Amino acid sequence: EKGLIINLSSISSFYPLPFLAVYSASKAYVDWLSRALDYEYRSKGIVFQTLLPSYISTKPTSFTKPGYIIPDTCTFVNSALSTVGTARRTTGYWTHGLQWWWCEHLPENLWNLFSWMLLKMLDNGKLQFDKQEKKHS
């Protein structure tokens, strides 16, 4: 092989994501683009891999604590790198793979409902956190 390109998509590319439509659409684009380019450049020895993770504990998701379901960045990166050469499309982390399997078997209307409920809950938690910060300021 002459090259490897890893593109970061998201599990949110599986179905449209209410309240994050542009995000989920752009992640679907990254997935489809990587798959097409992998086919085009495979004969030249260039491999395209798409990572489709779920939540990872990062600064933007600081409301999450790392664990088995939501890995920290180091755990995720080490796991994802272990898939290089074995998978062209992967969630990169074992519990994210279980979530992907669940999504594959979930009707889109339930995905929309669960996504809506989760995002509203997260949004409410952030808003409450922001209000608490303002009170203490």
UniProtKB/TrEMBL annotation:
<dbReference type="Pfam" id="PF00106">
    <property type="entry name" value="adh_short"/>
</dbReference>
<comment type="similarity">
    <text>Belongs to the short-chain dehydrogenases/reductases (SDR) family. 17-beta-HSD 3 subfamily.</text>
</comment>
<protein>
    <submittedName>
        <fullName>Inactive hydroxysteroid dehydrogenase-like protein 1</fullName>
    </submittedName>
</protein>
<dbReference type="InterPro" id="IPR036291">
    <property type="entry name" value="NAD(P)-bd_dom_sf"/>
</dbReference>
<keyword id="KW-0521">NADP</keyword>
<dbReference type="InterPro" id="IPR002347">
    <property type="entry name" value="SDR_fam"/>
</dbReference>
<dbReference type="InterPro" id="IPR052149">
    <property type="entry name" value="17-beta-HSD3-like"/>
</dbReference>
<keyword id="KW-0496">Mitochondrion</keyword>
